[in-house]
């Protein structure tokens, strides 16, 4: 039987790397995003003006068969402190991109994840403490961290023996980040392909996962470590 995964955010930089990695391993891959990923087995296209409830119904209704794993890597970044003119707009955007997508992924897991399957969300390493220059981003990612703790508890609605965790990268090595920070030390950035291979190891159960954990992803001198918190 072919294993299957839903990649929420499958057309972003990390999402594309994950789709490619799982397709290479002969998995069936459903990409969920506003734009199709041509490499995926199938696509669920989101609608920009959908409410959270409409988005949730759209995704749940289009996943027809139980899946082995769900990975949510949808999100983005926006800065701004309490005095920023963009505070409210940026904070609302960050909430929609990170929290709404994570909630839909969690609800999908309650309906379509196989018993013993994996749900991985995306938090952020900096959001473990204050983020004064990017308040909206930090708040949204901290909410994702809390969601993981809730989902790992009893009566969370997830299937029996399901595992849930979150990846907490510092900086991913993406074309957008390179163009925005051309003078940065790239040896401290984590390649998307590296994260994708780790997610495959977790989803395929070749590497064990502890439920309810936040997994810090730190790269130094081109070497990446994963630390559960």
TrEMBL record:
PROSITE patterns: ADH_SHORT (PS00061)
Protein keywords: NADP, Oxidoreductase, Tetrahydrobiopterin biosynthesis
Cross-referenced Gene3D superfamilies: NAD(P)-binding Rossmann-like Domain
Gene Ontology MF term list: 6,7-dihydropteridine reductase activity; NADH binding; NADPH binding
GO term, biological process aspect, one: tetrahydrobiopterin biosynthetic process
Classification via InterPro entries: NAD(P)-bd_dom_sf, Sc_DH/Rdtase_CS, SDR_fam
Family: Belongs to the short-chain dehydrogenases/reductases (SDR) family.
Protein name: Dihydropteridine reductase
Organism for this UniProt entry: Entomortierella parvispora
